[in-house]
Amino acid sequence: MAVDYRPTVFLPQTDFPMKAELPKREPGLLERWARTGLYERIRAKSKGREKFVLHDGPPYANGNLHMGHALNKILKDIVVRSQQMLGKDSVYVPGWDCHGLPIEWKIEEKYRAAKQNKDDVPIDQFRRECRAFAEHWVDVQRTEFKRLGVMGDWDNPYLTMAYAAEAQIVREIGKFLMNGGLFQGAKPVLWSVVEQTALAEAEVEYQDHTSRTIHVRFKVVTPSVPALAGASVVIWTTTPWTMPGNRAVAYGADFDYAVVRVDAVADGSKAGVGETLVLGAALVEPVAKEVGITGWTVLATLPGSELAGTLTAHPLRGQGYDFDVPLLPGGFVTTDAGTGFVHIAPGHGEDDFLLSQAHGIGVTETVAADGSYVDRVPLFAGKRVYTPYGKPGDANPAVIEALDAAGGLLAAGSLVHSYPHSWRSKAPLIFRTTPQWFISMETNDLRQVALQAISDTRWVPPQGENRIRSMIESRPDWCISRQRAWGVPIAIFVDKKTRQPLRDQRVVDRIAAAVEDEGADVWFTAPAARFLGNDYNPGDYEKVTDIVDVWFDSGSTHSFVLEQRPDLMWPASLYLEGSDQHRGWFHSSLLESCGTRGRAPYDAVLTHGFVLDEQGRKMSKSLGNITAPQDVIEGSGADILRLWVVASDYYEDLRIGKQILGYQVDVYRRLRNTLRYLLGALSGFSAEERIDPAKMPELERWVLHRLKELDIVMREATDAFDFHRMYVELHQFCSVDLSAFYFDIRKDALYCDRPDDPRRRAVRTVMDLVFDCLAKWLAPILCFTAEEAWLARHGSAPDTSVHLEVFPTLPDAWIAPDLAERWSRIRDLRRVVTGAIELERAAKRLGSSLQASVTLFVDSDEVLSGLDLAEICIVSEATLSLAPVPDGAFTMADVPGIAVTVGLAPGEKCQRCWRVLPEVTTVAAHPDLCHRCADAVDHHHA
Questions:
Q1: 594 annotated as ligand-binding
Q2: 13-17+655-815 and 206-420 share one CATH topology?
Q3: Is 621 assigned to a binding site?
Q4: Which of 167, 240, 724, 731 could form a disulfide with 516 if both were Cys (CB 3.0 to 4.6 A apart)?
Q5: CATH code of the domain occupying 831-941
Q6: What integer best gives the mean pLDDT of the chain?
Q7: From the record, which residues define motif 'HIGH' region (predicted)?
Q8: What's the confidence (pLDDT) of residue 842?
Q9: Does the annotation flag 752 for ligand binding?
Q10: 130 is in an annotated binding site
């Protein structure tokens, strides 16, 4: 009867399950971390270490998390955890952006549905409803962020609507007030008719839009040169509705212009035979084609500079537009398109406004906040540019019809082009000149200070520096006022007579103190006298009721988070957001801090891309291609999402979908199985079993070399925030170096050697080191799985957690380049042997590789001397030969100098280790075992 030797074989034993079931296990670990106060334990253990502070860019508190949120917060968490594992005190305080239009819009919707006007609601009541809405979503998002495994001070986050935060924002506005950087000016700003407020550049996105186009005649009434007498200057515009605001026409002083007589026209053309038109000389032919002129004669050509002094008539002269329209030189005029002339409406464009200012032309308000023409606009009062819902109104058709009736319209058409839209309402915007509050880019040299700060900052990836630099170099003054209700007020007073802001630090301090006690609502509800004190007559001043741009809110977070919390520091070590924040949070934080403190509030900035679907398309409900983080967590677990983040090149746009996530599940399984195998192999391992590396076989010393190499890579990758490299290296190590090589070779020694055998002790010593390193290196990425494995190895005492550990410090002496080179050659040799055996197995001449006897024909045996090649190749017999390679030997083109022949190993099969050896049958007490196994069995029974 055959003996059952299975009880004598040291097979891996562990309770760490092969099946992860992450959706079930992860919540239990979250509960454990909360119960044991893990975050507080980490802080206590880290006290006195070098600080690393990633300052959280606040997400907006108005809905469930999407995949962009998940990417951002997971990446932040990996940064924070890896810096902590480097041995730093890496503190993370999450925060939320709570003010602003999207929340206000939601509350307005409720009133609109009830047929109520929100302006009829007391402002403090309206603001309370906004606050309650934000509080609800902060709680929802906090729970969802924690479920991602993001660790931080969730019990004490920062909120921009906290009273102390609002008070500090008031103080920051006060700093710009006191240093002269804040001023009120009437400038053209991008205006949302839907939201009825000015928008910052960061709140604008460009989308394709169909605009009405018109070519319009401006009849010359006072020519600068005789050739212009009786002619009409032709302009082209994509905004017909701005024509009532026209006050000038711009030309290029360095361009040539042609006076053209119309000789023939196409059917339906509005051009008249015999009329004379003035056009850019380079644009005569394309304009003629567009307006239906088929024949023409150039009567004169003159340089643009000779147009100076020419006056024209507004096309609607005689209908309330009875003023001259001068031709003015404009450096922004081009000959790329249009007519070579640009109509100037100083109320509706930045170039228009500046050119008009330079020539003493004032701004006439034509369009109100709701997108309708004001009452004093002749012909068009009450007509709308856009409806309250962002749809085209009746202004363009009315203007075009009036121009046509007056003889001013030369042609009308349409054009699809990139046009500014609100990134919230998605409605098109208009330029509108209104009184607004600005922070000057020139006062206090803010632009130059900011540019220097950009040079002093580390940008990851480096191209981020050029992007934000170009924005700062060309940006206009920062418009910080919004005509809304929910936010921090620009809490200043304006002198009714001089229209100058009151600059008194005592007043600023009184306002801030009141806001700190009662919240920003106090500005709207308390009398002015409370803030002005006894030094000023409230009747002489008016309160500014605009609120500050929410980008100023978030740009000020450094002042009430980094500077005021003792567990943090200023400046932050790192800001980390999507690449769109070069125009958003990075930008506003830079300007706010440079304007008040002379430098950026961060030492480094890391940017990541956007999340797309598997085909590279933007996710949208209409396409049905949204992958929600909640669905991935429910189906696969948060660690799969975390693995996806580092598996992607997050410096670029990332793709996600079922197929991509399925691949990450496979990768995760390999990593988990590596940890599981190590845990099983280390069952019962104790410190007494360890063996000194100097006494280890070469293969174990090669593994130690690889560990040290990885130690260097992990530290470099952490410092570079290059977690993709970390992922690639760890995956390669687990799947190629360990599973397919080291574990494969050493499972025989692990299972079958005596427990006290030096070789087996060396294997287990190395595996203990490998597990320790892998669990710690994986902990920032697979925070749940690494913890589960760590607890399986070290027990579940409250003070046990891999997240309380630091990256291992490995000896430099483990680096062995000569050994690495030798084992690289050995691995090549093993590949050739494996290839030869696979051919034999495919031909059914061989079953297990342990049935094989192989002969290796090599150029030199120097590299292979002193090795047990049978063990390395997992065969029962291996022989080296320097003889000529026989015909039919197996070779591989990429491994020169090695050939292999395969035959059946002589002897009998050991019933314990399954090697085929001549010595089997020679041990009297165990005739079915080899010498090693017989000794191990005797030792086991003993």
A1: no
A2: no
A3: yes
A4: 167
A5: 1.10.730.20
A6: 91
A7: 59-69
A8: 92
A9: no
A10: no
